[in-house]
Amino acid sequence: MEMGEKQAYNTSRLEASIQMLEGQIPRAPAGWRRLLRRLIVQLRAVAGPTRSNSFILGGLSEEGQKVGFLVSEPEDRVLVGILRKTEAASKNTCSNCARPGKTHEVGGEPLILCPRCYAPHLLRQQLALWIEKDLTHKHESIVMRSDLPPVIEPIVRADRWRTFKPGLSAPPVEYITPGDLQELRADFDKVYAHVSALI
Ligand SMILES: [Zn+2]
């Protein structure tokens, strides 16, 4: 018997699909590996002779940011059910750490992340925006503490804030001058580098 024939005889189309999906696990994001391993176990459990001609396409997308399947027998409820559940689970599972997550836009790409794993991305985005828009181009006017994005504000050291009283009975308003902000540029860049290293 030729090698090719033997392989065709031993490996059903479904088993070949399962092996293809199994081969995707090493390049899957860490948070999704367990659900993909569970998928393989579930598929093998139902891969009897009656399904040997079924096959599955898809799985993890090229960029590793999405899970989706196509199945040759869409009326096979068991197979479709297993695949659909995996797909749904991936949409609610942080691709980084497997905690509950949802879709977030990161660098123009949709990523499924939990709040904790999304936080450094969000901070980095806001810092980048702040450094680019405000720190680089705002040389003229003072910046009110209340106008600073909440993630930026803690980076400004306490002794940098100045105050003025807008009226006799009004509470003092805290602000920072463009010059002081420019001096803090190094602090912002340092925090940006730290946050970037976390991602
Ligand atoms: Zn996470």
Fold and architecture overview:
This protein folds into 2 domains: 3-105, no CATH class; 114-198, no CATH class. With 199 residues, the protein is α+β, with helices and mostly antiparallel strands. Strand 1 (56-60) and strand 2 form a beta hairpin. The chain contains 7 helices and 7 strands.
Mean pLDDT: 88
Tally of distinct domains: 2
- C-alpha end-to-end distance: 53 Å
Unique bound compounds = zinc ion
Shape: rod-shaped
Q: How would a crystallographer describe the biggest sheet?
A: 3 strands, antiparallel
Helix content: 40-55%
In sequence order, what are the helices and strands, one letter per element?
HHHEEHEEHEEEHH
Radius of gyration: 27 Å
**How many β-strand runs?**
7
SS field, number of helical segments: 7
Share of β-strand residues:
5-15%
Structural class by helix and strand composition: alpha+beta
As an assembly, this protein is: single chain
Low-confidence stretches: 1-8
> For the largest beta sheet, what order do the strands appear in spatially?
5-7-6
Q: Layout of helices and strands, plus pairs?
A:
Layout: H1 3-10, H2 13-24, H3 33-46, E1 56-60, E2 67-71, H4 77-91, E3 102-106, E4 109-113, H5 115-137, E5 143-144, E6 162-164, E7 173-176, H6 178-183, H7 185-198
Antiparallel strand pairs: 1-2, 3-4, 5-7, 6-7
Helix pairs in contact: 2-3, 3-4, 5-7
Summarize the structure.
By secondary structure, this protein is α+β, with helices and mostly antiparallel strands. 46% of the residues lie in helices and 15% in strands.
